[in-house]
């Protein structure tokens, strides 16, 4: 009898654990599809959500948009979503069923959206024209480009911003990746100053979830840079990379030594030594070796989702050793996210 009770209790625990994992959703943000028809409501662009580990996808909201990134309001359980696109920032308060455009004609071609961890009403977006900030949950926006150098004859513009990182160790400090290196603000975006990698086009800037002093920057043509002192100094870490154009970098949530990167014709690259060296492979990707986004499952580190250029979504359940095509074939998937 005791054995039966124990087995029943164990079954309930495992059932609850499995259910908890399955409640995670995968978000795929599609920029454009090879099947896109101008002027039509295209089903292969915009936001797609999967609730079953990528086996089935549901399109949510507007279709004929060039979507680029997503942010989910903390503690909203997926109800409040911000989606960036060519026409600005869209917001949903009902899990993506309906959307409202939150920006006007002055704010377009938005590349990234980030919600401040200390204040859900404070939102930052990256655009080719610099940084914009909202303090009222997206209802109004203010340009925050003080200190960011505009394009001049013979110079590189730093107003083209691709990435935003809010420092977990100091939430008043914000870093941005620009076409002219990395810039820093110590007062939540009110004023910027050049920090590092001047003259280098940054495509992705990320902070380690294990150590806030560790940062990585993926670039257009110089590979990957790593900082271990909060961005004061940087070094190239390109050993093993098959291409120097890097669009995405992601971390194993459990193991600080395991890091993933990818970009133009790289396949998926894995580091097992904290980003010092890399091993890249295209095996199982059906020739779609250009990857724009990587997401690692927070609870199951071996479960990895990638968004490819023209190949849709691929998923691995064994840490990247094997891959299966998960759908959205023909789509340029700009961002994948697991929440």
Automatic annotation (TrEMBL):
Transmembrane segments: none annotated. One of its GO terms (biological process) is xyloglucan metabolic process. It comes from the Bacteria. Keywords: Repeat. PANTHER family: EXO-ALPHA-SIALIDASE, XYLOGLUCANASE (EUROFUNG). Residues 224-324 form the Sortilin N-terminal domain. Gene3D superfamilies: YVTN repeat-like/Quinoprotein amine dehydrogenase. Coiled coil: none annotated. It comes from Candidatus Thermokryptus mobilis. This is Sortilin N-terminal domain-containing protein.
């Amino acid at each position: 009898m005791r054995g039966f009770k124990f087995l029943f209790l164990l079954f309930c625990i495992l059932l609850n654990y499995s259910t908890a994992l399955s409640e995670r959703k995968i978000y795929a943000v599609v920029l454009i599809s090879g099947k896109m028809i101008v002027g039509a409501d295209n089903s292969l662009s915009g936001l797609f959500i999967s609730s079953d580990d990528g086996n089935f996808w549901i399109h949510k909201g507007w279709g004929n948009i060039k979507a680029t990134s997503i942010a989910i309001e903390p503690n909203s359980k997926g109800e409040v979503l911000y989606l960036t696109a060519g026409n600005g920032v869209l917001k949903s308060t009902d899990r993506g069923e309906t959307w409202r455009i939150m920006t006007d004609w002055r704010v377009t071609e938005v590349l990234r959206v980030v919600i401040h961890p200390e204040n859900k009403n404070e939102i930052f977006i990256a655009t080719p024209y610099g940084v914009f900030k909202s303090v009222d949950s997206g209802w109004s926006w203010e340009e925050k480009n003080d200190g960011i150098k505009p394009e001049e004859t013979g110079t590189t513009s730093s107003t083209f911003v691709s990435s935003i990182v809010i420092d977990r160790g100091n939430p008043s400090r914000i870093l941005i990746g620009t076409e002219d290196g990395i810039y820093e603000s110590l007062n939540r975006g009110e004023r910027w100053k050049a920090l590092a990698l001047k003259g280098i086009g940054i495509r992705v800037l990320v902070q380690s979830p294990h150590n806030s002093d560790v940062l990585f920057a993926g670039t257009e043509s110089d590979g990957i840079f790593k900082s271990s002192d909060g961005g004061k100094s940087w070094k190239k870490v390109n050993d093993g990379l098959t291409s120097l154009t890097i669009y995405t970098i992601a971390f194993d949530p459990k193991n600080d030594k395991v890091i993933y990167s990818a970009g133009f014709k790289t396949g998926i690259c894995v580091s097992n030594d904290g980003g010092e060296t890399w091993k890249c492979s295209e095996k199982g990707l059906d020739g779609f070796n250009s990857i724009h986004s990587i997401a690692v499952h927070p609870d199951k580190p071996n479960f990895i989702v990638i968004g490819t250029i023209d190949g849709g979504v691929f998923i691995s359940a064994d840490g990247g050793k094997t891959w299966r095509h998960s759908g959205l074939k023909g789509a340029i998937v700009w961002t994948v996210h697991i929440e």
